[in-house]
Design goal:
Distance between the termini: 114 Å
Radius of gyration: 39 Å
Structural class: alpha/beta
Strand content: 5-15%
Strand order of the largest sheet: 2-1-3-4
Number of strands: 12
Shape: elongated
Number of domains: 6
Helix content: 55-70%
Oligomer: single chain
Number of helices: 27
Amino acid sequence: MSEPNIKTLRAPSDWKGSVSKNRDLALVLALAGMLIAILVPLPGQLMDGLLGANIGLSVLILFTVVYLKKPLEFASFPSVLLLATLYRLALNIATTRLVLSRAGEEGTGAAGDVVLFFGEFVSGSSVVVGFIIFTILVVIQFVVVTKGASRIAEVSARFTLDRMPGAQMAIDADLNAGNITGDQASTAREELAEQADFYGAMDGASKFVRGDAIAGIVITMINIVGGFAIGILQYNMSFAEAGRVFTTLTIGDGLVTQIPALFVSIAAGLMVTRASSRGQIGDVVVGQLFGNPKAMGVTALILLGLMFTGLPPVVLGVLAVTLGMISWFSSQDRVIPEAGSKIPQPTAVSKIEDAARKKIDQQKPDARAYEFSLQQPISIVLGYSLHELMDPQGEGSSLHARVQQLRQDLQKQLGFWIPPVHARVELRAIPRQEFQIFLRENSCSRGELKANRSLVLGDLDHPIDRISGDPVPRESYGAPAKWVSPEDAELLQKGRGYKVLSSQDALLFHLRGVVIEHIEELLTQRETRKILDRLGDEFKPLIEEVVPGRLRVGEVQKVLQLLVAEQVSIRDMEKILETLSEVVQQQAGETPSPESLVEVVRVALRRNICSALVDASGTLHAVTVDPEIETLVLEGLEHQPIGGSLPCLSPEVHDQVVGALKKALEDQIEEGYPALLITSSRSRFAIKKLMEKEVPMASVLSYNEVAHGVTVESWGMAGTEARGWGVSG
């Protein structure tokens, strides 16, 4: 006997679970019902049920909005507004069909009891009264509520977009300062995006309500004119009889749809007007309206004065006494919070903005001035359409986390930390799909990204000519590339071995390129001091022997800058300092130039340099430089008027030398090996300077920098035909 009881108890739970799993089915059925109501004649009893459901739905929407704590809890409201509008229009069509097709035979009961009730009872059994009530409802909805709500939605959408850059900067500032975690920052960014999407959708959805009001007027006029024509011409009714039947039903139809429409319009107005309030709107409105005892006291006195003007004294007296009592009790209990009341909690975005505002306000004026005078070393600015790159869904990490990983990788590669990277979204400063990378607030790179697309890179084995997509200039990524859909990119990557980058990967590619290109600018004196300080007490005697014993910090900084500019790691600071100390001791007189110092340091670091350039077998694939070119370069250095490092060659000779070196490296680059030249130690730095603009990725080694045990495979000699060239006079 217990088993059936158990099943009976489980049934509701199972039914509830099945309903929760098939919520989308309700929308499908609703849309199908609208289509049926438009196409198929419905009986009056069914119309009563549908019209009653319309009234219930509008009341449900209204009170759902009333009890919301914040607008985003009902983020689907614009979609609900559209569906409710379509539902009412479908009901208008269905009732119009019943009124015009059956009223001649069935009279005022043709469209069901609900329409008849609104046509007779609500209008006071008077067609004129009903028409006036209908007109007033339409005017209130169209002119007052809907027009105001539409304007508020438009302004809210604009202001929400305008405040996004500032809110993004506040989020980034708190994240970089450690005031919030990465998850909290992601939540705040998501809330910002949701706010922008919501108010943008509300701006458009408010037009549905205005259109619904206009459609109600037009449908009513058509029904009245059509009803008179059908009643008189088809059913041979008298003018008065046709007016009584068709006008009564038309007014009933108009009222039964416009009253729910007014409820939904009020809900839309409440939704957009309560954007800045937190907590349920009833609590907020009552608390703020009746929260000022002085205002209520003055109002009570005015009502008492109006009692002697001929207005109803009893009503005014009751209102005055009530407001006076509320004012007195409020003034007594103003500082005592209501029992059980809860203070509305601010949103994640407001928390961050308030914290940032307080943090700035608490600083001394001179501290604030100093803060705003500092330039951000590296910053990324994204167009509004790329805001998803800050924290893309499904990619598992935010842009902040990816940039942190890039900084860590560069630290391992080069031996020091690049400054933090600040990223923000701009609404109007740059095009919506464009990014810019700034170095000390100067634009160094810009380009276009596709937020919801993937970038496919081509090469000799993977051509992209026949792949459909948006092409990208070859120079942007050093290879032919196209933007394709994520689905096509996955097929190309897994099925055919193409290299694929997400939009975030493409942005980081450009960021890495900017950092590498300007890496020496990021190694400041402050960072140099940090590097020396991090060595600790164990290396303190060695540090003091070099700095300030023989070299200034600026001179050590210049040596380190020259090293990292050629992608040489400075992780082995002990070896670098020992070499510098040895060199300056040998030249006790004049301090050597940073260029000459760095050549000696590179020889000391030759094993590290070669390890980054050899292949898996430990072989260097290199092009040697013709001695004739070396001689020209050295002679050019002698003619350098200011003692610089760039050889002074005539324009023709300069182009011929650089062209010969570039041509010699072509085969290496096509085979996928690093572009590498080997020359004498005296000309190495000058040749690197010649090549850094034309082939910036090319490495130039001296013979002394080839580590012991490393095999060199020559790919030819650059410039063997360069006989008879000369320097500029």
